[in-house]
Design goal:
The complex is a heterodimer. Chain A is mainly beta. Chain A has one helix at residues 2-10, and strands spanning 26-29, 36-41, 47-55, 58-66, 73-80, 83-91, 98-106, 113-120, 123-130. The chains are: A mainly beta, B alpha+beta.
Chain lengths: 131, 425
């Protein structure tokens, strides 16, 4: 089932990037066959990126926010099929002005909908992958 | 194969067989004990994992299949559940839905629970059984290899719903438990038995040596007694032969002479007395043959047997005798065969009530064979009183000591066969 879904994912079933403010989505595939990378712009000047790939029956999800400003605190939320799988607060680092969150979620039967959302001072970033 | 009759060899062989039996039985019992111990350990571990590790961290929403709840359980608890020989974890709802498994492909699938699982989920407790790997819900366990022990216990979700927590154990633990138990008990069992054998063997050797020495002493005494008896009987027989028999012969001849010289009634009476004396003299000579055998070496076995059979013939029994092959036999062998023949013929005369009797002595290869057959009343060897055939039993003992064999075949109303084989040399 996972391999079938990987194929479907590779066929861009899932590469939907959506910015809450209506910014056009962007998506990209990495080198790995089953890796999906989706990028987009936040409602402010920051950019977001989500990478999803399979790993031993799980989905490895990496969410990244790049604001080019170090020391910003962002509240982030990772939703899996609509429920909050994990949430937290992260600060952009000095050199790149970005932060990255990596979590493993269970690869369930059917299409898994992964939403990574980050909020700071009214600026919202929201990326979605249907894997 | 004479060594097989050695009691020390028999003891050692019995000890070895006992040792093998002890090892096999101890092994079986140890395996059983180890299995029970391993299953008990697996039950305990499953109870601890289910109630103390999994249950407190089961998130709300797991029973409804909430993806985030499954993620949290997977992230926070899995590493603490897959410990030791636990190779698989499954959490079931009562309707057979797999709410969680470390093989995520199974999550959400529905497989009806068995009666045992339903009993545990309803009544609590813990149960264990070997996994049936042919069932579809266990298809991912096949790749783990070997037998798996699945142990399940009841836990509760935060919503209060009873769930079935199931852990799968590999057989490695069973093997280790078996080895551990065997390592503990096998040396004790084997060591104790080996020590007993090692201690008893010298004692048995000593005892056997003493018994053999006593047997040889007894045999020597018996031989001395027999020789003394022979010498005494020889003296008596010689005295009778040289004294009474010669006197009777002389008197008989004198009476015959007197009868020839007399006339009428006196002559007839003298003849009658002379005949009576000759009958007595024959009886006395037969008695002498019984008291002590004639000089077998000089007169020959055939002549001696002829004298032996004379009273039987006189008693009206039809006798058939055939003696051959005794020339190559040693004096001892001939004397032994003579003695047995004497005993057998005596039994025929006293007990058999026979009308016919056959006595055969012949050489066969390196053995001298005696056969005495009669058509008398016979007897049941199993029920015959001991004293009735004491002579034959004593004879058998002599034959055995000489390295020969003796068999007596008889049945009520079917006559008797006595067959003896002794070495020629």
């Amino acid at each position: 089932m996972t391999s079938i879904r990987n194929t479907i994912a590779t066929l861009a079933l899932v590469t939907v990037g959506l910015v809450a403010t209506g910014t056009a989505p962007a998506s990209a595939h990495g080198d790995d066959d089953d890796r999906v990378i989706v990028t987009g712009a936040c409602s402010g000047s920051a950019d977001w990126k989500i990478k999803v790939k399979t790993d031993d029956g799980r989905l490895e999800v990496e969410g990244e926010i790049d604001s080019n400003v170090a020391g910003q605190r962002w509240r982030w939320t990772l939703r899996h099929n609509g429920s909050v799988s994990d949430r937290g607060v992260a600060t952009t680092t000095a050199r790149s002005g970005s932060f990255e969150v990596e979590r493993r979620i269970v690869d369930l039967a059917g299409t898994d909908r992964v939403v990574f959302r980050a909020v700071r001072d009214g600026q919202t970033c929201r990326g979605v992958v249907n894997y | 194969m004479r060594w097989l009759t050695n009691p020390v060899v028999q003891f050692l062989a019995t000890g070895f067989v006992t040792l093998v039996v002890v090892v096999v039985v101890t092994g079986a019992l140890s395996r059983q004990a180890a299995d029970e111990e391993a299953v008990a350990d697996a039950r305990s571990l499953t109870r601890v994992l289910g109630r103390s590790v999994a249950q407190p961290d089961i998130p709300e929403g797991l029973v409804t299949g909430d993806a985030a709840a499954i993620d949290r359980l997977d992230r926070t608890v899995l590493d603490r559940l897959l410990v030791g020989d636990v190779r698989r974890i499954k959490v079931w709802a009562a309707d057979g839905t797999v709410l969680y498994s470390d093989r995520t492909e199974l999550i959400g699938a529905v497989y009806p629970l068995g009666a045992d699982e339903l009993e545990v989920i309803e009544d609590g407790g813990t149960d264990a059984e070997l996994s049936d790997l042919s069932r579809p819900e266990n298809r991912y366990e096949r790749e783990l290899g070997g037998d798996l022990l699945e142990v399940y216990t009841r836990i509760r979700s935060p919503e209060g719903e009873p769930l079935l927590f199931e852990a799968y154990f590999t057989a490695d633990e069973l093997g280790q438990q078996r080895a551990a138990v065997l390592d503990r008990f096998l040396p004790i069992s084997i060591g104790a038995l080996a020590a007993l054998v090692a201690l008893a063997t010298p004692l048995l050797l000593l005892l056997n040596r003493r018994l053999s020495r006593a047997a040889r002493e007894r045999e020597r005494l018996l031989e001395a007694a027999v020789r003394a008896s022979d010498a005494e009987r020889l003296r008596i027989a010689r005295d009778l032969h040289d004294g009474v028999v010669q006197d009777l012969a002389g008197s008989s001849m004198t009476l015959s002479t007197l009868a020839a010289r007399s006339e009428g009634a006196v002559s007839e009476e003298l003849e009658e007395v002379g005949r009576s004396l000759r009958v007595s003299m024959r009886s006395l000579r037969s008695l002498l043959v019984e008291i002590y055998p004639p000089d077998l070496h000089t007169a020959g076995l055939a002549a001696a047997v002829h004298d032996l059979l004379a009273p039987i013939v006189a008693a009206g029994i039809e006798v058939d005798s055939d003696i051959s092959g005794d020339e190559r036999a040693s004096d001892a062998a001939v004397a032994l065969v003579w003695r047995i023949a004497q005993e057998a013929v005596r039994n025929v005369a006293r007990h058999a009530g026979a009308t016919r009797m056959s006595l055969t002595i012949r050489g066969e290869d390196d053995r001298l064979v005696l056969e005495v057959v009669d058509d008398g009343v016979g007897f049941d060897p199993g029920t015959a009183p001991d004293d009735a055939h004491f002579g034959l039993r004593a004879a058998e003992s002599l034959v055995r000591e000489y390295g020969g064999s003796m068999e007596v075949e008889s049945a009520q109303g079917s006559g008797t066969l006595v067959r003896v084989e002794v070495p020629l040399a």
